Amino acid sequence: MKVTDYLAIYAAILSSVVFLWNVLQSRPRFKVDLLFGVDTVEGVTTSGISIVIRNTSSHDIHLAAIGLLYPYTKVDAKEWLLHLWRYKRWTRRVGWCQTSLSNYSIKDGCPMCLEARKSHHVLVPKEIFEKILSEATRDSLIATVQDQLWNNIYSRPFKWSLPKKT
């Protein structure tokens, strides 16, 4: 092969890599984290779980809702397979209940536009998330954020151990 053939192969590979990079960069992306935090709400210092939404893309994201999920029932393999068959959807959150922050009078600021490379956080006071966990079957919470195109992004489970009931 001649040098020009090698240059043509190099150019084709390089343009393909640049095309794939541009496709990946053009999609809006955001991440959700649950952290234990302390914040001042209406002049009172409050501790609780902070839901942090980070826009990691170079595009604005329009958020519609922020909520919490907690496990309300134990699901065995048979129930999970029945759910998969009925709804034709692969999910890891069968047996989890979703609740809106507005059910607990928490202002989440939604709907809102989250600018590129910015973050937004909402504090869920300790008393409220312990109340939510008291209804749960396990001591885990997951935050969910929905954009205005109905795409849901979930955080990793946040584990919190409640005091034993005597």
What does this structure look like?
The protein is α+β, with helices and mostly antiparallel strands and 166 residues long. It has one domain (29-159): Immunoglobulin-like. The protein has 3 helices and 9 strands. The strands form 2 sheets. Strands 3, 4, 5, 7, 8 and 9 form a 6-stranded antiparallel sheet that branches. A hairpin with a 4-residue loop joins strand 7 and strand 8. It is extended and about 75 Å long. The N and C termini lie far apart (81 Å). The relative contact order is 0.21.
Keywords:
166 residues; alpha+beta; Immunoglobulin-like; six-stranded antiparallel beta sheet; three-stranded antiparallel beta sheet
Which helices and strands occur, and which strands form pairs?
Layout (H helix, E strand, L loop, with lengths): L2 H24 L3 E12 L2 E12 L5 E11 L5 H11 L8 E5 L11 E3 L4 E7 H9 L5 E8 L4 E3 L3 E2 L7
Antiparallel strand pairs: 1-2, 2-6, 3-4, 3-5, 3-7, 7-8, 7-9
| Beta-strand fraction estimate | 35-45%
How many helices does DSSP assign? 3
How many DSSP E strands?
Answer: 9
Shape: extended
Mind telling me the C-alpha Rg? 22 Å
How many strands, which pairing sense, and closed or not: the largest β-sheet? 6 strands, antiparallel
The tally of domains stands at: 1
User: Uncertain regions: pLDDT < 50 for 5+ in a row?
Assistant: none
| Cα-to-Cα separation, first versus last residue | 81 Å
CATH class label: Mainly Beta
CATH topology: Immunoglobulin-like
CATH architecture descriptor = Sandwich
What does the average pLDDT come to? 89
Order of helices and strands: HEEEHEEEHEEE
Structural class by secondary-structure content: alpha+beta
Helix content: 25-40%
